[in-house]
Amino acid sequence: MKLTLFGVRSLVFYATVVVAYVSAPYVNLFFLLLAFLTLHWILAFAWTSSSLRGLTAQVDELPAVVANTPARVAVRFHAERGRLFDVNATLLVQFPGQKRPLRASGGVAVLSGRAQSSLAVPALPRGVYPVFRAEVWSSYPFGLMKRILTLADAPTEVVVFPQPTSVTDASGGRTAEDFVRDMLGSNVSGDGDMQPSGLRDRREGDSLRSIHWRASARRGKLVVLEWEGGGGEGLEVVLDRRCSAAELEEALSDLSALVQFAREGKEVLAIRSQDLNMTFGEGHEPFDRALYFLASAQVIPMDGAAPPAVSPTVLRLPRRSLSA
Fold first, then answer.
1. Contact 134, 89 (CB under 8 A)
2. CATH of domain 1-161
């Protein structure tokens, strides 16, 4: 247990009363006040030390968060017996350059059985932030002391990926496909080496846009066009991190939009970069790994290694590379 700020102030007041009792002539008055405060502290210690007895808690995994956007993560409490009061949870996130970690907090006033709350994660810039500690605590009933338990079942880091470049412009009616087409340009297909490999029967979960309507009409049943890798229509992109910090941030925002587009369209996205050569989507790596890369990617020196060699038809980022 540890003292709260209110507890520290109360302890100073208690010490003042002790000094007054010893030195002042009004002994009876200060004796009664001192006896009351002493009983108050004894009850606070006994009550607060048992305020979390029988409590178990779990903080859910925190999915990747968009940069500069607040998020919430669920925390589940379970009181095995009786009622508990003023139960709180805090996620301490280490922020580079700051001595004190950021705090994401939430809780319940009265807990009987099972309950759920959420921790408010503050808006953070792009990056991967380690979770310093996850804890549950209570200062019930008087707020003088705080009983703290460290949670083992909690996220270990907060992944913050870049804000995607806007893929929808309400005024112009642009769609995600329009955005990709604008990035690719008229001379680049973007398919790279990920070409159609054949037709197969449509399965549950396949998107409508993957259906080959002419072949479906000929066969009398729905069939889809399957691309190399077996995960649907594919897009390939190369990210060359030999650039300025501003160019990298813009490229990562573009790539973040492409990841969002591919995930929602259930398509395959291949990303080639320095230290990364992976394909994401159904049957491949999960898109969460792509978001982790977007959160952690850093600029490399201009004389550093080049990204993997690919077909000339592949989309290249940053965008200045399109005209190169």
1. yes
2. 2.60.40.10
